[in-house]
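Q: For a teaching handout, I want to show students what a protein-ligand complex looks like in token form. Below are the inputs, and the small molecule is alpha-L-arabinofuranose. Please produce the holo structure.
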Amino acid sequence: MIPADLRVRLGETVAPVPPRLFGGFVEHMGRCVYQGIYEPEHPSADEGGFRADVLELVRELGVTVVRYPGGNFVSGYRWEDGVGPRSERPVRLDAAWHQTETNQVGLHEFATWAAQAGVEVMQAVNLGTRGIEAAGDLLEYSNHPGGTALSDRRRANGAEEPFGITLWCLGNEMDGPWQIGHKTADEYGRLAAETARYMRFLDHRVELVVAGSSNMEMPTFGEWERTVLRHTADQADHISVHAYYEESDGDVASFLASAAGLDRYLDTVAGIIDEVREELGLTKQIGISVDEWNVWYQRDWNDNHKDAVLSGDWPVAPRLIEDEYNVTDAVVVGSLLISLLRHSDRVSMANLAQLVNVIAPIRSEPDGAAWRQTTFFPFALTSARARGRVVPLSVKVAAGLTEKYGEVELVDAVSTVSDDGCVSLFVVNRSVDDPAALSVELDGAELVLEDAQTLTVPAGGDRFTTNTQESQPVAPVALDGVVVEGAGTATRLSVTLPPISWSVLTLRPAAAVSEGTPHA
Ligand code: AHR
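A: Here is the structure, written as tokens, with alpha-L-arabinofuranose included.
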């Protein structure tokens, strides 16, 4: 049994929970758009061709903002191809993923879908094959009310009102040699700065994300951020971080400790932002936009599929990187969310990549079902329960040795308090074999337990159990045996956490219970 003692200081605040922390990502890649969110022939499709079953799951997932249309795809994309009468839209080769793009979904359709899903659009511009002019044109087309060639074209194409998109990504992973139009940090920094300036001239409301490194292992990591920020700091509101994790060579201990890697990544980028701000005498803050993160079995893609896919035919909506997630993956996704929440003072937004079919929490089959992957649940529960502000939490927990990250505490947690005083505790047990004896002291309120759920190995399954179209055995279950003792302004909680588990416990003020106030 792993002893795990936590102390939560409810009266103090790390930062408000950023609503955009629960973002998603829809790329024109594989079956994310076509057969994912959009399938006009599907029995559940609405008049716009969007699948109602998928939309329902997107709503349940609790996504707040969705990045679109890429990803690597955006670096060769002409946004004009996706507007106007569908029958006249060109069919193009997409060189990023070696697929054929029919352009049946574009800006208007995505804006309609996003409104139905209740999410903000985070629009990426192409700084690979294109540049300042195309980015400005897209912005004017999207946001100017009317009376100019571009805005009137939008109105003629059926959108009388501007889309009002304020959040924009300036390119994607421009540090990566795989990126169409890959650039050096200086080349990208200059282009991003001038694109940003032009976009602000056109619409002063824009919020801009400059591209950071594609991952922490890039040889240019660090220097890339410094150089790009030196060029763009006066214009940038956020800098991106992309972070994917996987279990490799059977090293499950390192995989379960992936959040320690994300913690280091975020702390390093935050340090670089501070360094450049000081160097330039900047008073404004620059947020970290973790606009691609997830578990992704990238080595399998690179070793076994990439070469064949990228040199083969040019299919429409091929099955690309449709990773099937198991229990361990879901626990890691939950733990990465803990890391993101812990960094709420620096992370301004985050996007689980991607939303449907392509390394996604939601899967769908053409003319068939849509279902929740294992990773759906920690995301949906965190998005639903992490409200208000993140509060400081200290841990006294046994550590385990990992190959990738050294000593890592076996239990990790974060806690939030909503405006009505409800406390949520998100906690992960990263041990493969041992349960953890969790003991939590919550200073500042007398609380009672409202709900406790855990995602762990299901009865009859193992840590590799997945959810498939036919059966979905992995879902959160009640976490039994929670003992809560509250008195005055303190609460003590104890429970046993199963090995390889992610749990959420929600408590509400004892006073609200006696008054019978339900928790929203
Ligand atoms: O999400 C899949 C791909 O991962 C994206 O297109 C790219 O930005 C990243 O490398």
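A: Two things your students might notice: The two ends are 35 Å apart (CA to CA). The first strand starts at residue 2 and ends at 9.
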